[in-house]
């Protein structure tokens, strides 16, 4: 029977039916670079923003649309050599206080432009602090930020809202987790990467398994709803055997979610990676083995493969949303809050805001000093706003975004659904793309018929490759900017 939501999974809730079959030959055949599609169009399509446009976007957003708030904290106390982000390594406590002042100033700038119903504060359903290391902010500074936000926005209750923060377990004070939970944070994400000491030394991120276990134990005792752990495969001195030991130890700790990322060694682009000796990196064949072993071990342990490196327990909100056909993707990755406008704050932060028939993607300056100069100037000139880049999506973009995101979230696109939503005949409209997918159908990565296109278990690890076929912006110039599947 066809479910009411065509994207609701027919696989049911039995985790074993979610297994993404690992096929080394197929991955090698299709292992090409491509975007992770946290947006469509991707961030490579940004253009300079016209004066006053951000002001108009914020003023004209749908007043009833709930918000997801993102705060970027760029500071770290230690340099991790695998890092591919623009982080600022500093131990100066004054940096966090100075930066907090800029965040609060930016919140005021944007909040004054948001229209609301009946003069009430805008509703926030989701909040996330990322970085860098968000807990670089001292406990009292986190309290100051949170209390200020309560005066500007209306937050859903602890049971309804999703309030998360990324944590470096090495940098927690004895009281930090309790402070965060008392404020209202209900989800945390820990960067672990690997538990093998030789690997940790090689990437300059040393911590014990006991430390991670203690953080998880305390977080559960404090009542955090969900705990995520990040791992990376392909790091120096990793072997399939050592990574398998790490994965099994992490499974014993029973996090609710795991993110297992591929390390892409690009020292010409990321200065920190120049500290890693290429000779110490595992071979492509070893990386493939690591990927296969990790997938099999996690799924055998009961984790559901969500997609693009992410796993979750079957009762986790992400897994439930995927089975119900309600999963979404944005710049925060997979999310259940697809009805929210994303409002970003801080250096390099990104916003996604809809109004009328358009959606806008905006980005603040990626240089800290330039970002701060803009916020300073805005205090004296209300025409100045933080965003420096913008993408305005067309209805054609929205159509292709809908296709790409459903492929990545639900392994399926339903032609009848697309026809009704966009007023087209999908088979005719995408006839060229359908033809390009012929080889994947022959390899049993996908199945196509008059009803739609479904990514089969054998093809789930290559869903990005299926999605890339529908990307009109992807060309050779852009492909070199993205990572491969492995």
Descriptive notes:
- With 486 residues, this protein is an alpha/beta fold.
- The protein has 18 helices and 21 strands.
- The strands form five sheets. Strands 2, 5, 6, 7, 8, 9, 10, 11, 12 and 15 form a ten-stranded mixed sheet that branches. A four-stranded antiparallel sheet has the order 1-18-17-16.
- The chain is globular and about 60 Å long.
- The two termini are 37 Å apart.
- 41% of the residues are buried.
Nutshell version of this structure?
The protein is α/β, with parallel strands linked by helices.
Using brief descriptors, characterize the structure shown:
486 residues, alpha/beta, Arc Repressor Mutant, subunit A, pyruvate-formate lyase- activating enzyme, 2 domains, 10-stranded mixed beta sheet, 4-stranded antiparallel beta sheet, 18 helices, 36% helix, globular
What is the name of the CATH superfamily of the largest domain? Answer: tm_1862 like domain
Helix content: 25-40%
**C-alpha Rg (nearest Å):** 22 Å
Mean pLDDT: 91
Write down how many β-strands occur, each being a DSSP E stretch of 2 or more residues. Answer: 21
CATH fold type of the largest domain: pyruvate-formate lyase- activating enzyme
Shape assignment: globular
Question: Which CATH first-tier class of the largest domain would you pick?
Answer: Alpha Beta
The assigned CATH architecture of the largest domain is Alpha-Beta Horseshoe
Q: How many domains in all? A: 2
Beta-strand residue fraction: 15-25%
Low-confidence stretches: 12-16
Number of helices: 18
Alpha-beta content class:
alpha/beta
Separation of the first and last Cα atoms: 37 Å
């Amino acid at each position: 029977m066809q479910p009411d939501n065509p994207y609701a999974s027919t696989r049911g809730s039995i985790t074993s039916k979610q297994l993404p079959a690992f096929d080394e030959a197929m991955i090698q055949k299709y292992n090409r670079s491509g975007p992770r599609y946290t947006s469509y169009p991707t961030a490579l399509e940004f253009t300079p923003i016209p004066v006053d446009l951000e002001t108009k976007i914020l003023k004209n957003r749908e007043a009833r649309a709930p918000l997801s708030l993102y705060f970027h904290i760029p500071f770290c106390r230690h340099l991790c050599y695998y890092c591919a982000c623009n982080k600022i390594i500093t131990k100066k406590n004054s940096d966090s206080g100075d930066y907090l002042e800029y965040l609060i100033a930016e919140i005021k700038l944007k909040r004054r432009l948001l229209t609301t119903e009946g003069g009430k504060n805008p509703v926030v359903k989701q909040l996330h602090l990322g970085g860098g290391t968000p807990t670089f902010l001292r406990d009292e500074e986190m309290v100051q930020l949170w209390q200020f936000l309560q005066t500007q926005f209306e937050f859903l209750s602890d049971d309804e809202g999703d309030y998360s923060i990324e944590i470096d377990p090495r940098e927690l004070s004895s009281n930090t987790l309790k402070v965060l939970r008392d404020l209202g944070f209900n989800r945390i994400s820990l960067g672990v990467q690997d538990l093998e000491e030789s690997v940790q030394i090689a990437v300059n991120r040393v911590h014990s398994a006991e430390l991670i276990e203690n953080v998880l134990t305390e977080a559960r005792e404090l009542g955090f709803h969900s705990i995520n752990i990040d791992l990376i495969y392909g790091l120096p001195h990793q072997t399939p055997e050592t990574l398998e030991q790490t994965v099994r130890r992490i499974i014993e700790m029973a996090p609710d979610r795991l993110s297992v990322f591929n390390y892409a060694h690009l020292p010409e682009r990321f200065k920190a990676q120049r500290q890693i000796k290429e000779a110490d990196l595992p071979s492509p064949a070893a990386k493939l083995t690591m990927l296969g072993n990790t997938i099999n071990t996690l799924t055998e342990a009961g984790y559901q493969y969500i997609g693009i490196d992410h796993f979750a327990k079957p009762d986790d909100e992400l897994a439930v949303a995927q089975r119900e056909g309600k999963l979404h993707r944005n710049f925060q990755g997979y999310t259940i809050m697809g009805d929210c406008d994303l409002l970003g704050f801080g250096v390099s932060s990104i916003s996604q805001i809809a109004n009328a028939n358009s959606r806008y993607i905006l980005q603040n300056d990626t240089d800290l000093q330039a970002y701060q100069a803009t916020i300073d100037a805005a205090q004296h000139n209300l025409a100045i706003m933080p965003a420096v880049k913008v993408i305005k999506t067309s209805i054609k973009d929205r159509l292709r975004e809908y296709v790409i995101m459903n492929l990545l979230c639900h392994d399926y696109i339903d032609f009848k659904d697309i026809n009704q939503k966009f007023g087209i005949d999908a088979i005719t409209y995408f006839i060229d793309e359908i033809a390009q997918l012929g080889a994947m159908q022959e390899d049993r990565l996908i199945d196509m018929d008059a009803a739609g296109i479904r990514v089969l278990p054998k093809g789930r690890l290559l869903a990005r490759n299926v999605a890339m076929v529908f990307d009109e912006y992807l060309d050779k110039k852009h492909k070199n900017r993205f990572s491969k599947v492995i």
